[in-house]
Amino acid sequence: MLIEVKNIIAGYGGAPILKGLNLAIEQSDIGVIVGPNGAGKSTALKAIFGLLKVSSGEIIFQGQNIKNSLPDKLVPLGLSFVPQEKNVFTSLTVHENLEMGAFIRKDDFSDSLDEIYEMFPPLKAKRHQHAGELSGGQRQMVAMGRALMSKPKLLLLDEPSAGLSPRYVIEIFEQIKKINQLGVGILMVEQNAKQALSFASKGFVLANGTNSFSGTGKELLNNPEVAKSFLGG
Amino acid sequence: MNELIFFINKVIISGAVLGSIYALGAIGITLIFGILRFAHFAHGDMMTMGAFITFLLASAATALGLGAPLPMGFMLLPFAMIITALIALGLDKAFYAPLRLRGARPVTLLIASIGVTLMIQGLIRLFFGTKTRTFFANEPKDIFRIDMSFLGASRPIVITEPQFLMIIVTIIAVVSLHLFLTKSKFGKAMRAMADNADLAQLSGINTKLVIKVTWLIAGSLAAMAGTMLALDVTLKPDLAFNIILPIFAAAIVGGLGHAWGAIAGGFLVAFAETLAIFNWAILLRPFRDKLPDWIGTDLSIVATEYKLTVAFIILVIVLLVKPTGIFKGASS
Q1: What total number of domains does chain A contain?
Q2: B86 — phi, psi (to 5°)?
């Protein structure tokens, strides 16, 4: 297993939001967390990435317990996180954004830069523009590119399709599949539940801070109970 | 022609000198705001402290019988910058870092910095007294007079050696800072953190180290500005406290968090001040015979005592027209 989250309880100080969350994915997986608003989907990603305190349970990344580790420890280990909002440095150029993603790397990362530009061709033309001037879809590309520059083994994506036009949603999902094929495990939170589960190798339905259903994406899509309660029939 | 020379001396040179000091001070304020999101009110007193440190070093060097081709205070400035930078780091560790750790709001940090202001001023008065000192008690202050007789002027352009050096070091400091912020990995990380501190942390940027470097830069630039100001005028415990408000105005006018904005704001405020207190009647002197009497002999826009108002008028205008400053600055 690339990452295993075992029975974690976490929150922002008050009542816990995650009440015993379990999930596990391999490096070859695209894991998707779906569920109603307020179920703790984003909180789950933040808890893994050390952005809030996990009071009990275990988070094992490649055999190492990373519970409550801070991002500057996690990024060198091979985790990378794309938040839903404010996920680019707006006053830095596209190129500088990508360079910041490689901040922890000591080696020459110019071929990684080339790979990102190849993966997201629109960015190459706009490499010297400020990221704040780009469209929503292109910003999302910068955000994902930035996160990939650290050569992660696991990429955490918080609602990558939020606020994008349908055309871009398809494009971003295609890119996520491609990134996964390059050997990067994906764990993402999605509102577009049906669309995301249709290409997920692992799905987790979150409700009230625990996962009420887990399975492959297809299993969850075909589960009548999941369909009725969480996918709108 | 003499009238024009007078204008150059009073407006261009004075403005450039004042602008250099405002810019160096405002860069520190804007960097600290960008990284730590609070208005560092004690910045003026860090400038004064830097000047006093230089003064101590210069006095010691003179007592040891050392001589220097340039003013002693200027020669020892690099050492004073290092010491002041380390003290700035210490001030952060002692007063601001514990507050940040407890999640204090920016206004709490602002109040704490006012406390630091009073503390530094008190310590300076305790050790040095309240009297005014000069760096040039034991050495002459060189004055350059550029002869303009070939233009038919009997007055020369006058610039003192400290003023000339100040403009030069400001240019060097600004260019090096620019190269640091745009070319070096760490400088880019500083801009990234000023832009979006959470994302900087997520990217694995060592934000604690960025904070330290910010204080080192702000502290050393403060020592530079304070020392150059003291070399130009005199050294006293409220040296830079008196100009902290126009320096803040410069940082805000330029767009808080934006280093280029601080420089532009510094020179804008400084030139506006020198232009506003300049007696424009002097430029009209050659035509006095043809002008009506009601024009009078004093045409300055504001009296020298009210110089400070100019900074605030500019501040109000800029905030009304472009609330984020000339360059787009941080909104909070």
Answers
A1: 1
A2: -70, -40
Phi/psi-derived region of residue A151, left when phi > 0, alpha when psi is between -120 and 50, beta in every other case: left
Instruction: Please judge whether B205 and A99 are an interchain contact, meaning their C-beta atoms are less than 8 angstroms apart.
Output: no
Using DSSP bridges, classify how beta strands A202-207 and A30-34 pair: parallel, antiparallel or unpaired. Answer: parallel
Is A118 contained in some domain? Answer: no
Secondary-structure class of domain B2-321 per CATH: mainly alpha
Is the model's pLDDT at B242 over the cut of 90? no
Q: Which residues of A touch B191 (CB under 8 A)?
A: 89, 91-92, 96
Measure the CA–CA gap between A61 and A40, rounded to whole angstroms.
21
**Using CB atoms, which residue from B188, B195, B203 is nearest to A146?**
B203
Residue A68 lies in a domain: yes
Q: Where are the domains of chain B?
A: 2-321
Could you report the predicted ipTM of this complex, rounded to two decimals?
0.90
CA separation for the pair A207, A193 (Å, rounded)? 14
Residue A48 lies in a domain: yes
The DSSP element (H or E) to which B177 belongs, if any, is helix B161-183
CB spacing of A101 vs B328 below 8 angstroms: no
Name the pTM for this structure. 0.88
Task: For residues B141-160, give the mean pLDDT.
Answer: 82
At A124, which helix (H) or strand (E)? helix A121-125
Phi first, then psi, for residue A126 (nearest 5°) are -110, 20
Whether residue A183 is contained in a domain is answered as no
Collapsed DSSP state (helix, strand, coil) of residue A54: strand
CB contact under 8 A, A89 and B206: no
Query: Does residue A196 contact residue A231 with C-beta atoms inside 8 Å?
Result: no
- CATH code, domain with A49: 3.40.50.300
Q: Does B201 contact A72 at a Cβ distance shorter than 8 Å?
A: yes
In angstroms, the separation between the Cα of residue B238 and the nearest Cα of chain A is: 37
Residue type, A97: N
